[in-house]
Write a structure and sequence with these properties.
Number of strands: 7
Shape: elongated
Structural class: alpha+beta
Distance between the termini: 163 Å
Number of helices: 5
Strand order of the largest sheet: 4-3-7-5-6
Largest sheet: 5 strands, mixed
Order of helices and strands: EEEEHEEEHHHH
């Protein structure tokens, strides 16, 4: 009994290279396509790749990533002196067993990667300087010495600015690995500064409370001393209110 299949599901299939392509024939109607072995020249080296005859050039590019180290998006494949589109099928272009193809790196991609690499290198140099400052602050705090919290905040902001630059870098391959490495360095420095800021804030709060308590005790003592030493002016200037006792003369009889 034939089951109903949602429209469009049977028309697509997932190829070994990970690319979703349209089916050209149902598996039940025809045998699996034969495998072919092609030679791909990259520079002065030939790479032998085994691939399905009905694969696309895009799938072939993905297979060449491991052998050449070149990202599939940076590859240009030529067959019979013509660049082939990634979505085109090998057999449709006439590629057969032992066919020779030429792989080249896209010059635009090379220029783009060089620009991105310069950005990453510049960030790395800045992170080196900022990381040194983080280490210096960490050493001061570990000794119990005071560090201005504003200095920690400014250093954190500088690191976050470098992180924003890295997020805008569009890279792949080795360039992407370098970018990720610098991102992790920045994140580690920021985490260290957050920890140091917390310690500085706690120490500052404890110091303020101790100072406040000490000041309160001094006020009480001063007040007591003023109470004993100070003589009210009103008492010194007040007129005498004593009553004069009249002098009496006694006559002896």
């Amino acid at each position: 009994m034939e089951t109903n299949t949602p429209t469009g599901v049977k028309n697509w299939e997932l190829r070994p290279g990970g690319m979703l392509v349209q089916k050209r024939a149902d598996a039940d109607e025809s045998p699996p396509p034969p495998m072919i072995r092609v030679r791909v020249k990259y520079g002065e080296v030939y790479h032998h790749v085994q691939v399905s005859s009905q694969s696309t050039f895009g799938e072939l590019k993905r297979l060449l990533v491991e052998q050449t180290g070149l990202n599939h998006q940076d590859q240009k494949i030529f067959y019979k002196n013509k660049e082939r589109d990634s979505k085109a099928f090998l057999d449709s272009a006439g590629v057969k067993n032992k066919s020779k193809l030429v792989l080249m790196e896209d010059p635009i991609s090379i220029e783009r990667r060089q620009i991105q690499m310069k950005k990453i290198t510049h960030v790395r140099m800045e992170v080196d300087k900022l990381s040194q400052q983080v280490s210096e602050i960490e050493a001061v705090v570990s000794k119990g010495e005071n560090v201005a919290e504003d200095d920690v905040v400014k250093l954190t902001d500088s690191l976050m600015n470098q992180l924003l630059i890295l997020e805008k870098v569009s890279a792949n391959g080795d360039t992407e690995l370098q970018r990720i490495m610098q991102v992790k360095r920045v994140q580690k420095c920021v985490e260290t500064l957050d920890m140091l800021k917390s310690k500085i804030s706690t120490a500052s709060k404890d110091g303020s409370e101790s100072k406040q308590n000490g000041s309160s005790n001094e006020v009480v003592i001063t007040t007591k001393w003023e109470t004993f030493d100070s003589t009210p002016v009103s008492l010194m200037d007040a007129p005498s209110t004593s009553t004069s006792v009249p002098s009496l003369t006694w006559n002896l009889l």
